[in-house]
């Protein structure tokens, strides 16, 4: 039987006993050996921490064509100390997964904690007796698009869409999409309250000094992206969206997703629509940053995406 192991964002708490702002937390993944993707976590004191697990019918999925000859099969890992598994070609939120039967999920992750920088958003929640767990985050293909339009590895070409060497234990991946086909957003219950702009996702998979999984780590980053309020909200949800946007505007105007370096066990595998689907917990930090994109390496130009994943570094180990 195969076990799925991957590394997840550091420093998340899973308790939601009360709404209490937390101090900002520092990131820890070592990016020193990354040579091809220039994205890095941007310092921020304004963060929202989200978490979703497959057992709670949340999280995200990384999937690949079960046909070994299909162009969206995904490449085979060959970095130093990697297990030689398939790198999933696509990534999307659990609520947009191709698995069969459908998951019935309504979001990818749930808000767990807020740093003190999100004062307007925090105060609006507390003043209106709104719990954090009513705020969700989702991403993936739009509802009227096929799941194959979600973030993916493009042509899956070594040196363009991913970077690896048998002499290095690091693999770098770039997941991209047509911006018109995908969405990334916040919800209040099931109502969309914030639309985010398009961003690529960058996945850094470090397989460590040995073939064992215990020394592996992973980071997933985005470029800075913007935020806007959709039309048609009622007074409660419009006020909530406005409070969020005020905090973002006052602290830099942009946002970045950071996912880093913690091992989790709640990972599962299923199939659907001819694809192998890996269901993965989704801890992440949504950070307010300056709305200026990090310059990309000349080798890593293009539309990039939510790394899903490498999401899956998805170390399938026997």
Automatic annotation (TrEMBL):
Record flagged with keyword Signal: yes
Keywords from the UniProt entry: Signal
Record keyword Signal present: yes
Organism domain of life: Bacteria
Signal peptide start and end residues: 1-26
Official protein name in the record: PEP-CTERM sorting domain-containing protein
Species assigned in the record: Nostoc favosum CHAB5714
Lineage: Bacteria, Bacillati, Cyanobacteriota, Cyanophyceae, Nostocales
């Amino acid at each position: 039987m195969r076990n799925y192991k991957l590394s997840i964002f550091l420093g998340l708490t899973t308790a939601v006993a009360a709404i209490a702002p937390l101090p900002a937390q520092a990131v820890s993944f070592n990016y020193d050996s990354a040579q091809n993707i220039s994205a890095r976590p941007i310092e921020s004191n304004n963060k929202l921490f989200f978490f979703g697990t497959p057992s709670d019918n949340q999280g995200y999925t990384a999937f690949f064509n079960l046909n070994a000859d299909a162009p969206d099969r995904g490449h085979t890992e060959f970095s130093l100390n990697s297990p030689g598994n398939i790198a999933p070609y696509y990534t999307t939120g659990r609520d947009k997964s191709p698995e069969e039967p459908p998951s019935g999920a309504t979001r990818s992750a749930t808000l767990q904690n807020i740093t003190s920088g999100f004062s307007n958003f925090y105060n609006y929640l507390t003043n209106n007796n709104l719990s954090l767990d009513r705020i969700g985050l989702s991403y993936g293909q739009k509802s009227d698009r096929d799941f194959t339009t979600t973030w993916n590895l493009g042509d899956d070409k070594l040196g363009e869409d991913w970077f690896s060497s048998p002499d290095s234990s690091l693999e770098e991946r770039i997941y991209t999409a047509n911006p018109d086909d995908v969405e990334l957003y916040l919800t209040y219950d099931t109502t969309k309250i914030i639309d985010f702009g398009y961003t690529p996702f960058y996945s850094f998979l470090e397989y460590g000094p040995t073939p064992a999984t215990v020394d592996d780590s992973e980071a997933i980053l985005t470029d800075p992206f913007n935020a806007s309020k959709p039309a048609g909200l009622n007074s409660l949800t419009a006020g909530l969206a406005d409070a969020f946007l005020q905090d973002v505007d006052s602290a830099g105007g942009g946002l970045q997703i950071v996912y880093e370096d913690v091992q989790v066990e709640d990972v599962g595998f299923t199939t659907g629509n001819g694809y192998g689907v890996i269901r993965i917990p989704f801890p992440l930090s949504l950070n307010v940053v300056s709305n200026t994109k990090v310059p990309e390496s000349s080798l890593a130009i293009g539309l990039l995406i939510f790394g899903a994943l490498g999401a899956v570094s998805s170390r399938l180990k026997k």
